[in-house]
Fold Phosphopantetheine-binding protein.
Amino acid sequence: MESTLRENVAGLIGAAPEEIPGDANLVYLGVGSLEMMRLVTKLRRQGIMLDFGELAAEPTLDAWERHLREAVR
């Protein structure tokens, strides 16, 4: 699941998944609020209830992966 998240984010910013450090600020890398909303919507359609506010408050892959693991539980 985390690798899919990383791949989705990489697609948003036009980078290879392995090039994105887990602690990099994704907003600085080009992930805006619209892209975050689209990602949340996509994951919700898959039954994963992520909160946009949590993602926006901590815009790093490490934090998003943590929220994703919590949402899947």
User: Anything to note?
Assistant: The domain at 2-72 is CATH 1.10.1200.10 (Non-ribosomal Peptide Synthetase Peptidyl Carrier Protein; Chain A).
